[in-house]
Specification:
single chain; 176 residues; mainly alpha; 7 helices
Length: 176
């Protein structure tokens, strides 16, 4: 499990570095007239410079602890890399930077493969500490301990249990 987490982190980091590096290298090579093919590839990428920003923001959000932020990060990263992959595939014959972009997309695919394997392993071998318990059950158990210690009566415990579970009890009306 720990190895998969490390591999997942390494694949994501390497993929991000290569993806950004391909943009930077392509821009640097496009500045020189000796690399006309890189200049045409850079022209396409400069029109899509937001792809680079998408990728950076997406990768930053992937490391967040908030589940919604992670989902947004996955979406941004996948969309940015999809655009990068599309541009690279059309330019692969005449641009070395397109090859670097393609390698970064492959590394991202390995990252998601690690996530998939991790999810399969986690579901196959659930540990007791990973199972989250309903807050209501925890509260009921706490009240049961209080009852067992003799602090409250069984009737008071039953009243608390019904209140926690939202069960309506019939209240006897002594007034006639």
């Amino acid at each position: 499990m720990k190895v998969l987490k490390i591999l997942k982190t390494v694949f994501l980091a390497c993929s991000a570095v290569l993806f950004i590096f391909s943009f930077v290298l392509c821009g640097a090579m496009a500045a020189y007239p000796a690399y006309p093919s890189e200049a045409s590839y850079f022209t396409i990428l400069s029109a899509l410079i937001s792809v680079c920003v998408w990728a950076l923001v997406g990768i930053f959000l992937l490391s967040a602890t908030n589940g919604i932020a992670q989902k947004v990060g996955h979406g941004l990263t996948i969309s940015a890399y999809s655009v990068g992959l599309t541009v690279s595939l059309f330019s692969i014959r005449f641009s070395s930077c397109a090859i670097i972009t393609l390698v970064s997309v492959i590394l991202l695919a390995f990252y998601y493969l690690c996530i998939l394997i991790f999810a399969i392993i986690k579901r196959s071998f659930p540990t007791e500490c990973e199972v989250e318990e309903d807050v209501r059950i925890k509260r009921i158990r706490e009240w049961k301990k209080v009852m067992e210690e003799g602090i409250i009566t069984p009737e008071e415990y039953e009243e608390k249990r019904c209140k926690i579970l939202g069960i309506k009890t019939e209240q006897k009306n002594d007034k006639k």
